Amino acid sequence: TPPRIARVRKNEVAVFLEVDEATTKILGWTAADMVGVRSLDFIHPEDQDRAIESWMQMLSEPRMVQPPARLRHRRSDGSWTWFEVTNHNHLADPDSGYVLAEMIDISDEMAAHEALRERERFVEAVLGATEALVLVLDPKGRVERFNGACERLSGYGAADILGRPLWDVLLDRKSTRLNSSHANI
User: Fold this and answer.
1) What is the pLDDT of residues 155-176, one digit of tens each?
2) C-beta of residue 16 within 8 angstroms of C-beta of residue 42
3) 166 exposure class (CB count in 10 Å sphere: 0-12, 13-18, 19+)
4) Start-to-end Cα distance in the chain
5) Phi-psi category of 16—alpha, beta or left, where left has phi over 0 and alpha has psi -120 to 50?
6) Torsions phi, psi for 153 (to 5 deg)
7) Which of 15-29, 102-116, 171-185 has the highest mean pLDDT?
8) How far apart are CA 72 and CA 82, in angstroms?
């Protein structure tokens, strides 16, 4: 199995000083390709502001443990790998004088998140496109979601229906139209 954790050393302006074997295996670059190059050159354009902000915070508060930043790094084949990067500032240490970046490959996790977001977008599109009344209930029978047809037929808005048990909604006087037009719910 490919490694998941990589470590690199950078100078004060985030130029790679040293990369470990895991980094080269994950990203596909050789150490010679990376050493002497700014780490920002490997970071996805959409993630660069977040990377700079994280780096500047680490420099301004060297003793504080900084939260990791989730950043995409360019692979040698042009694809992107997600890393959770934690920078450890050792610049003031006369024995080291570098920033150690620990990078955990979270590509599988991020792919799962994207698949879930895509599924959510699909469900929302289906709910919005159908004229059939659709209610989604949680395991306790409370309304978790509903579509526009439900709102039009019942007269309920989100504040009236979300989180309420379906039975209460069906028995409510305001839902007379809902009960009479959909008695087989």
Assistant:
1) 878 888 899 998 887 777 555 5
2) no
3) middle
4) 51
5) beta
6) -75, -35
7) 15-29
8) 4
CA dist., res. 62 & res. 87, Å (int): 10
The residues, ordered by sequence, that sit 6+ positions from 92 with a Cβ below 8 Å of its Cβ are: 62
* Strand boundaries in 27-163, DSSP class E: 69-74, 80-90, 98-105, 135-137, 143-146
Non-local CB neighbours of 149 within 8 Å, separated by 6+ positions? 130, 131, 132, 133, 134
Tokens linked to 28: 């596909």
Residue 180 has pLDDT above 60, yes or no: no
**CA 36 vs CA 9, 19, 39, 41: distances in Å:** 11, 10, 9, 11
* Tokens matching residue 141: 């029978």
- Partners of 81 in the β-ladder: 73
Output the CA torsion sign for 130, 131, 133, 135: positive
Task: Convert 52-80 to b/e letters by CB count within 10 Å (16 or more is b).
Answer: eebbeebbeeeeeebebbbbbbbeeeeeb
- CB-based contact 88:99 (threshold 8 Å): yes
Query: On the CB side of 29, how many CA atoms lie within 13 Å of its CA?
Result: 23
pTM: 0.68
Tell me the per-residue pLDDT of 52-80, one tens digit each, with 9 for 90 and over: 999 999 999 877 778 899 999 999 999 99
For CA atoms 171, 150, 164, 115, the dihedral sign is positive
